[in-house]
Design goal:
This protein is α+β, with helices and mostly antiparallel strands. Helices cover 30% and strands 22% of the residues.
């Protein structure tokens, strides 16, 4: 299936995003979490057929979790996801002014057995900041 430039691209992953700023312990555990998140993006990207998306783009990263995080911890929890989306799909640096990054969070549905997840939506953007 060929996507047009106007079709949003949606990646869904069953991965737990935690606030790295509040984690204690060995640095290797944080590295391992980051690696798992990047691998989850890679797998979701491969399932979709390795599509690319040319900036300017608006990217909404939605964290699904039992507890909510404050805004700075929410953005920090999705840093590895952001890096991988920028590199693999947008083929640019995550600091590019041509990308508008937004973060949301919601609680899991009571009917699902999965308590954690992440949804990444990539859509066209006018390039004008709100």
């Amino acid at each position: 299936m060929k996507l047009s430039r106007l079709d949003p691209l949606t990646l869904e992953m069953r991965i737990k995003l935690v606030s790295e700023a509040n984690q204690r312990g060995h640095w290797g555990r944080g590295y391992q979490r980051s690696k798992q998140q990047k691998e989850a993006v890679l797998c979701a990207w491969l399932v979709l057929g390795k599509p690319t998306f040319k900036p300017p783009a608006r990217v909404v990263i939605t964290r699904i979790g039992v507890r909510t995080l404050d805004t700075d911890n929410l953005a920090r929890s999705a840093k590895a996801i952001r890096d991988e989306v920028a590199e693999r799909i947008l083929q640019t640096d995550d600091g590019s002014p041509l990308i508008l990054w937004e973060y949301e969070q919601k609680k899991p549905l009571p009917i699902t057995k999965y308590k954690y997840g992440c949804i990444v939506e990539i859509m066209p953007w006018s390039g004008v900041k709100p």
